[in-house]
Amino acid sequence: MKKYLTGRTVTTLALLTAVVSTSAFGSMMVAKADTPAATSQGTTAIHAKAVPSPRLLTPTNHTLLMIDHQPQMAFGTSSIDIQTLRNNVTGLAKAAKAFKVPTVLTTVAAKSFSGPIFPEIQAVFPDQQPIDRTTMNAWEDQRVVDKVNSYAKKKLVVSGLWTEVCDLSAVLSAIDQGYEVYIVTDTSGGVSKEAHDMAIERMIQAGATPITWEQYLLELQRDWARSETYKATTDIAKEYGGAYGLGIIYSQEMFGGKEGH
């Protein structure tokens, strides 16, 4: 068919194509211009306010669930160095304690197989007896669920061993029952990096929000003018926050540095 097209026909087709394309583009431009979010100058008509996102964690809008931080579980963890894990877990626990976040501790087969909860965690919550389970999924133990429910918080922050078993099953179960779940990735660990990473990805796909323990600490503080928790926040950062903590020590010692006003 191509050989029967004359020069005039080709020109006509090209013009028609241009007209159709221009019309379609014009329609798209009109549709975009008609949307409420745009002005004649092309800028968005957003009137923002200096208020935090409801997605942010606060000391009063969530419960922390710490699952199976026990020796036997740590022995099988290879996605994170165990010394680093213990450091991070302690920072997380102390952050929750400093901000008076309701915290649920739970273990699996503590007497018969996995051993006691990390002593660092127990030291932060000396009067709290972890709920010991037989189930790998903490959310299948009614005592754990009842304890979480008793605090009446919409958001749930989860940390535990192993990521691909105990964290994953609890997170998916809580999400399906209406909780907004945040998973602390660097206070959790799996039997391999791939197992940990794939579990985190699966939780994210289900709606969980990944965070780190230091992010958690600073998200709860969020304003250095909050003097009632300033010292606790900086003390935790200095002891467990690595380079950031060292920077705080340096600034305080060298020239009395202090964040905020």
From the alpha carbons, calculate the radius of gyration and give it in angstroms: 27 Å
Helix/strand/pairing class, anyone? alpha/beta
What is the strand content?
A: 5-15%
State mean pLDDT (0 to 100 scale). 88
Biggest sheet: strands, sense, closure?
Answer: 6 strands, parallel
Order of helices and strands: HEHHEHHEHEHEHEHHH
Shape estimate: globular
**Given the structure, what is the number of helices?**
11
Record the strand order, biggest sheet.
3-2-1-4-5-6
Overall strand count: 6
Q: Helicity, in percent?
A: 40-55%
What ranges have pLDDT less than 50 throughout 5 or more consecutive residues? 1-34
Q: In angstroms, what separates the terminal alpha carbons? A: 79 Å
Core attributes:
6 strands; alpha/beta; 11% strand; single chain; 6-stranded parallel β-sheet; 261 residues
